[in-house]
Amino acid sequence: MNLSKLFENNGDHTVNKNGHNRKLLLKKKIFSILYLEDKKTIADLCTPVNVSIPTMTRLMHELINENWVIELGAGESRGGRKPVFYGLNPFIRFIIGIEITRKYTRINIFDLANRPVGDTLHLDLELDNTPEMLKVLRQQLDIFIEKNDIDRKSILGAGISLPGLLDKKTNINYSYPELGQAPLDFKFSELLEIPSFIEHDTKAIALGESWFGLAKNKSNVLCLNVGPGIGLGMIINGELYQGASGFSGEFGHIQMVPGGELCDCGKIGCLETVASGSAIVAKAKRKINEGTNSIIKKLVDGDTGAIKLPLIIQAAHQGDQFAIELIEESGGYLARGIAILIHLLNPEMIIIGGDLAGAENLLADPIQQKLNKYTLNRIRQDADIVVSELKDKAGLLGTIPVVMNNIFSQEPNIINFNSTLKP
Which CA distances in Å does 363 have to 314, 319, 325, 359, 383? Predict the structure, then answer.
């Protein structure tokens, strides 16, 4: 991440308004460097913050007294006194991550070292039953915060990922009108009583991969989210690509089968209708009810209504031929779409993530094979096709940069450096 871009909008008026605001801005720079780049010595910090060693020393002493910074010990000597390293106190502030999908909701709390404070909370909350869902979400979050002994005043913000057509100009989700016509960042901030920042689910996955996964330190990466639907998050020239209104990445709604099945979007033959997790589950149920033999039926004790994607993936890993064929068929359709992306965007890497990433090589191998058929070899060679190492964790982890990027881009006083909250 380019630190200069984080602060270019603050402007000289913020620095020069008065000494207090200047100090806040300097502390914010120190905070962001220690957060993004890990431990530093006072000498390391002077150049990027653009202050002298005496000034930096005073600032660091204040941050230590305010409990924001801790001493991490001495490094190796280079002929003089051993340098002392400093880092953020990871327990001075926390970040709430909320991943809302069509089928479930997941919550966790992360410290400033990006570590979860406890086990992820899984809730059977679907986005469709919105009025009840929002009430339960607030109740469950309060219980989770209390269970993990977190002071609400120590929470920097909540990052919330959602599916659907999310307009980044207005923060209105047009796929879920039940959420209302008010900006969702305000709606969730009011609901949770925590500053809340909204991102599309697949773009949050791309951020998770860019900060913590295989896309880290890469500039041009495409991140596929293959779950109940199919989405695409794009890192282009090192930045998350949004499009004119934030609607980029609706990869699942390119037409794949003319005259095919009706998609949830109202169009015919979309990629989602043949390659998504929902399509795989629907076909598994239909074929097993028609008499196809598979261990999937045993895994659900004959109740085909209980078939879910993880069970199909489990059966495939156990060698069930029917389950393997379902995943291979999905991979074949995905390869056709990915071939278009490779020719248009020439990415260095394509990461397959989402629920179907649990199939690993059972999905990646047929995609690789079909791409050799559908793509120009020279362009294809530039793109590594990999399965996410974060798998279904990428979306929840991606809510961390959703919060922190917003924190860094706002005025310095959003972070109260005068706070003396104890860990």
Answer: 13, 14, 10, 6, 17
CB-neighbour burial class of residue 132 (10 A; exposed 0-12, middle 13-18, buried 19+):
exposed
Q: What is the pLDDT of residues 368-405, one digit of tens each?
A: 999 999 999 999 999 999 999 998 899 999 999 999 99
Q: In the predicted model, what is the mean pLDDT of residues 194-214?
A: 97
Does the CA dihedral 31-32-33-39 come out positive or negative? Answer: positive
* Euclidean distance between CA atoms 395 and 1, whole angstroms: 19
Q: Could you give phi then psi for residue 311, rounded to 5 degrees?
A: -70, -35
Residues making up the chain, counted from first to last: 423
Q: Which distant-in-sequence residues (6+ apart) come within 8 Å of 139 by Cβ? A: none
What are the b/e assignments for 99-116, b being 16+ CB within 10 Å? bbbbbebbbbbbbbeeee
- Is CATH 1.10.10.10 the right assignment for the domain spanning 3-88? yes
Q: Class of 94-206+397-414 per CATH?
A: alpha beta
DSSP string over 282-342: HHHHHHHHTT---HHHHHTTT-GGG--HHHHHHHHHTT-HHHHHHHHHHHHHHHHHHHHHH
Cβ pair 206, 234 in contact under 8 A: yes
pLDDT for 309 beyond 80: yes
The domain segmentation of the chain, as residue ranges, is 3-88, 94-206+397-414, 216-389
Q: What is the pLDDT of residues 218-252, one digit of tens each?
A: 999 999 999 889 999 999 999 999 999 999 999 99
Contacts of 80 (CB under 8 A, 6+ apart): none
Q: If DSSP codes are grouped into helix, strand and coil, which group holds residue 349?
A: strand
Q: Hey, how many other C-beta atoms are within 10 angstroms of the C-beta on 60?
A: 21
Binning the chain into helix, strand and coil, the percentages to the nearest 5 are 50, 20, 35
Strand partners, 236: 239
What confidence score (pLDDT) does residue 277 get?
A: 94
Q: Which residues pair with 74 in a beta bridge?
A: 84
Pick the CATH number of 216-389 from 3.30.420.40, 3.30.750.24, 3.30.70.270, 3.40.50.1370: 3.30.420.40
The Cα 309–Cα 241 span in angstroms is 29
- As a whole number, mean pLDDT of residues 162-183 equals 91
SS3 state of residue 181: coil
In sequence order, the β-bridge partners of residue 123 are: 105
Domains 3-88 and 216-389 share a fold: no
